Amino acid sequence: MRPSGRNLSDMRPISIETGVMRHAEGSCLIVCGDTRVLCSATIEDKAPPFLKGSGQGWVTAEYGMLPRATNSRNRREAAAGKQSGRTQEIQRLIGRALRAGVDRRALGERQIVIDCDVIQADGGTRCAAITGGWVALRLAVNKLLKANIISTDPILDHVAAVSCGIYAGQAVLDLDYAEDSEAGTDGNFIMTGAGRLVEVQMSAEGATFSRAEMTQLLDLAEAGIAELVRAQKDAVA
């Protein structure tokens, strides 16, 4: 039995509320169980210097966690004067994931910055940030299209992410914190709406895993991603 009482292949309840930030070109609050992430998209009219003259745009991300997003207060990274290695790794992951679903030439020489702020953490924050970040990106691109700033939709496909792991000897979908902290193996799976893999992060946490178990986790991830993509479609409809 999972701590939450869910079946092995059950996702946590998902909701995505859009338009939650007045000034952002695109925004949403994504809720996955008790994990809540605020995502916003900002359109900047110029691309980074390394893309100057290339005719291509860029999508990047920043990620942060509020001090009381967890059960004890974490010091703000701004107060410490630098970002942690974990934060840097996660925001690079979010940027890579979202760029996989974008035709950067169709975007033109501009940058879209996705900000992901964790309001409450209960496992899977990076996955929720990617899934919600795509919604914010989609809404921002819609504004560019509506204003005829770009003529071709640069969004190639949905991008979403979910965690899976081996908990108590069984493959389970969408780990919450209680499971993530005890899982023998855990992984993050990022996929497109068409089911193509963008990135897989898997590691053994004290117990190795077999190829068969990895296949089980991939099968669970595919089903979970399909559910997340449906939620994305509903949110931006």
UniProtKB/TrEMBL annotation:
Sites where the protein binds phosphate: R86, G124, T125, R126
Source organism, top-level taxon: Bacteria
Class of the enzyme per the UniProt entry, highest EC level: transferase
Entry keyword annotation includes RNA-binding: yes
Domain Exoribonuclease phosphorolytic: start-end pairs: 10-140, 159-223
Keywords assigned: Nucleotidyltransferase, RNA-binding, rRNA processing, Transferase, tRNA processing, tRNA-binding
Family note: Belongs to the RNase PH family.
Known role: Phosphorolytic 3'-5' exoribonuclease that plays an important role in tRNA 3'-end maturation. Removes nucleotide residues following the 3'-CCA terminus of tRNAs; can also add nucleotides to the ends of RNA molecules by using nucleoside diphosphates as substrates, but this may not be physiologically important. Probably plays a role in initiation of 16S rRNA degradation (leading to ribosome degradation) during starvation.
Record-given protein name: Ribonuclease PH
Organism from which the protein derives: Paracoccus yeei
